[in-house]
Amino acid sequence: MLICIPDIITPAEARQVRDRVLQLKFVDGSATAGVYARTVKRNQQLENSPETQKLQDFVMQALMRSLEFERFAFPRNMKPIMFSRYEPGMEYGTHVDNAVMSGRPPVRSDVSLTLFLSEPDTYDGGELTIQTLTGEEQIKLPAGSIVAYPSSTLHRVAPVTRGVRVAAVTWVQSMIRDPSCREILFDLEATRRSIFETQGKTREFDLISKCFANLMRMWAEI
Ligand code: NI
Q1: Checking CA distances to 174, which of 68, 101, 185, 196 falls within 20 to 30 Å?
Q2: Burial level of 197, CB count in 10 A (0-12/13-18/19+)?
Q3: pTM of model > 0.90
């Protein structure tokens, strides 16, 4: 299961971040890829600097404010935000994300996340393309929206053929390691919320709340 969440930041904020990012120095993205992914990764990434740090913090704080993101990902640890840029001819071929990413502490990648920063009509190609059991899912969202998906999938960024695709990516170590368990909890939460909104704090609401809490106790790694 993947989720698209609009308006993590506003279109105006996305434009400000994108404009600032494009004024800073980028380096070859293959440096941060694993041995095999390096052979298919053709993009650029923002170099670390105090300015980069400010932009990373801004995006991270926006993510942390999203209840929908929290309900989907159950974040425990996250990698710092990485800004990437694709010009015409650049792409990131099919790969799986590294399972354990270095850092202090190291982060197990359970959920991968892309925040789109370029408006879709300003570039061609550049779709995040995820392999699912029913075929490929192509995702290209308005600036300020995110897609989050299980890191266990094969995925790629299609070649950009016009314009510039700027995006921010990161990885989440979830309290709930198994994507099917996260999906059960996500659905239970949506169900109890719906009951609460339509019928109030009923006996059914209480029992679903009990199931949710007890499954969290069973599954959560904290
Ligand atoms: Ni990836």
Answers
A1: 196
A2: exposed
A3: yes
